[in-house]
Amino acid sequence: MAGTLNDRQPDDEPAPDRAGAKRARWGRGRRLLLTGGLLAGLLLIALAAGFFHFAASLPDKVAEPARRTDAIVVLTGGSGRVSTGLRLLERRRADKLFVSGVYKGVDVSELLRVSQQAPGWLTCCVTLGYEAETTYGNAIETAAWVQRNGFGSVRLVTAAYHMPRSLLEFRRRMPEVTIVPHPVFPDHVKQDEWWRWPGSAHLLLGEYGKYLVARVRALVTGPLQAAGVSG
Description:
Layout: H1 18-56, E1 71-75, H2 81-90, E2 96-100, H3 108-114, E3 126-129, H4 135-149, E4 153-159, H5 163-173, E5 178-184, H6 198-221
Helix pairs in contact: 4-5, 5-6
């Protein structure tokens, strides 16, 4: 009998709802975009909050200026660092001074002359390190020197904005050594009102980024107990 259900041909099947499937895919894509945008926004907020905390927590004074340590360590790369280290040595805050990251070819006498210090007796107490090119390298180079000399404490001299990353790298490399921070405050870095000075803002943003990279590396590779261990 024509027209019965048993006689229905394949062409009589209802057409798939292509428009509905397209709307469903579009809805899923929209939800993914919204979720990704929300996560990106939260990440930006977290990074911004972290930067403001970083800038606000930078040292604004030398906490323990009179404390003696076994050695003084100066990280090159900014104004006032070497001269500060030499003054501390002259004032007997330590018996030895290590300058990390010196350009090859620079000797102690030239360093003292450039820093406007009379060579005199200071020459015999200063050691230069030529291997380091980064803060990470400074920590490796200094740790090896500290280990060779059996020192248990050092005064770390570097710029205030550079101090958080330096302390992170140094304490990771030398967990059993007492590290006393001695920040230097370059005139060109407007630390208190950095938002009013594009140069200072750019410098602090760059340093914050490097600090985050150092934190991630420390979390991934873990603490290092020996100067000779790579990581």
